[in-house]
Specification:
By secondary structure, the protein is α/β, with parallel strands linked by helices. 31% of the residues lie in helices and 13% in strands. The chain is built from seven helices and five strands. Strands 1, 2, 3, 4 and 5 form a five-stranded parallel beta sheet that branches. Strand 1, helix 4 and strand 2 form a beta-alpha-beta unit. Helix 2 runs antiparallel to helix 3. The protein starts with a helix and ends in a 33-residue tail after the last helix. 18% of the residues are buried.
């Protein structure tokens, strides 16, 4: 038995483009649609949308209206803001201009606010019909490292990681430290 030298040093790809474990039928159909569009058009925009549709929930961070507003202040009139995540309202933003936004999901207040300003909320299948190559689209993405969950991870924050508090501290085991119980070094009375 010989060794196939051509295949010997090739790195194996762990994940194919658009491969996901989601059970959401709508997202699965969107992945099929954008896989087809990427094959037919070869557009880098479609490839990026396809990759982001396959993201896990942790990596699909919601984007607020204020972030969309800041990113699209200098955008052209007909541009569409594309967010491959949820869009949520931001009450700190007083007035939101008319914008066309495509996203996986909109919160009720965000949808009302966009439509009240004269903008449009698009789904990804509507976006595929309007702009199949992604021309005139601005891709936006939320920062996953700003989420509250990541503030607890020592690998990212180092010694400045935020400690977990709340219900954990109500348990007896969290109070078994020095100075709390006599069995752990005594209780000091000040």
């Amino acid at each position: 038995m010989g060794i196939d030298i051509d295949q010997k040093h090739k790195k194996q790809k762990h994940k194919h483009l658009g491969e996901t474990k989601t059970r959401d039928p709508y997202r699965r159909l969107l992945i099929q649609l954008y896989k087809f569009l990427y094959k037919k058009t070869g557009s880098k925009f479609n490839k990026t949308v396809l990759r982001r549709l396959a993201y896990t929930k942790v990596n699909r961070v919601a984007v607020s209206l204020s972030r969309i507003y800041k990113a699209t202040e200098k955008a052209k009139e007909g541009d569409i803001s594309v967010v491959v995540a949820n869009v949520v309202n931001d009450e700190r933003l007083f007035d939101f201009p008319a914008r066309t936004i495509a996203a996986i999901q909109f919160s009720e207040t965000a949808r009302q606010r966009i439509e009240k300003a004269g903008g449009r909320c698009l789904t990804f299948d509507q976006l595929a019909l309007e702009r199949p190559t992604g021309s005139g689209c601005l891709l936006l993405k939320g920062s996953r490292f700003r989420s509250e969950t990541f503030s607890h991870f020592r690998g990212i924050r180092g010694k400045h990681a935020k400690p977990y508090e709340g219900k954990r501290n109500l348990r007896r085991n969290t109070e078994r430290k020095r100075g709390r119980r006599k069995s752990r070094g005594g209780v000091w009375n000040h």
